[in-house]
Each structure stands twice: as structure tokens, then as C-alpha cells.
Please model this.
Amino acid sequence: MPREFFELKELESLVKLVREASVVIRSDPFIFIPLFGLIFYFDLRRSKEGEVKELFNLVKDKMVLVNKVTVSDSIKGFIEETLGGKDCDCEVNIYWPDGPP
Model:
């Protein structure tokens, strides 16, 4: 399903959203903030070096670094694709820290 991504042009706007967000996703050169059912993003190439360092200090407790983005229809499909097309005869266990929703 297609998603809309809202580009933030100013670092100040990014800082406002970061304060509200529970997680900030970094996949260079982008910062993504999922918030209110929307996805906001900021292109780090638009910033000065000092600003990026300041931003990283601000979001260090909320930021997760994404190494690779993969699209799949299911966990089983993801495992099969990641293992190079091998059939997945695996059990998937879901851990809910606070119990199931």
C-alpha cells in the first residue's frame, strides 16, 4: 500500500516533531519520523555539519539506525527471500512485552 512522506525543509520543524516522537529512524541521508499515522522526513544533505551533529545529540535516545530496507508480504516471505529462496519451515514467535494488544 502506498504511503505519503512529508518532507521537512527546516531543522526547527524536525526538532519539534522529534520531541513528540517515540522513535526516529535514520537511513542515511534521511531521518524519518513516524508520528500521528504520518511519516515525516528530513534530508540530512540539506544541513550544515554542525547542525547534523547537534541533531544527533538531540535524538540519540530515540534514534535507530537502519542498515537495509527490504519489502516483503510476510515474515515467512521475508525469511525465504533473505535466505536466498530457501523454503521456510520455521516457527514464528511473537513477544509482547506488556501482553498482547
Notes: The CA atoms of residues 24 and 60 lie 9 Å apart.
